[in-house]
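Narrative summary of target 7.
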Amino acid sequence: MAKKNITIDDLATMVQKGFNETAKKADMDLRFNSVEIRLSKIEKDITVIKEAMKNLVAENYGKRIEKLEDEVKELKGTLAMLLK
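Modeled conformation, tokenized:
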């Protein structure tokens, strides 16, 4: 394979082309800001979902505890009648 001689000007042109193809800070800032906004929305949605789930679980446990209390009262009443 023949060796190609590269001049300083050729090298400078290649380096400049590489820099031109690299994303600029302003472009990256815009993209990061966009991602940050989207993540903030996701965090808010997750907070709302967690709160709703917490309330739902608390409500369900409350109903289940009330039902168990009623059943225990019924069992106590039945046991009291049997022991008389």
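Residues 25-83 form the longest helix (59 residues).
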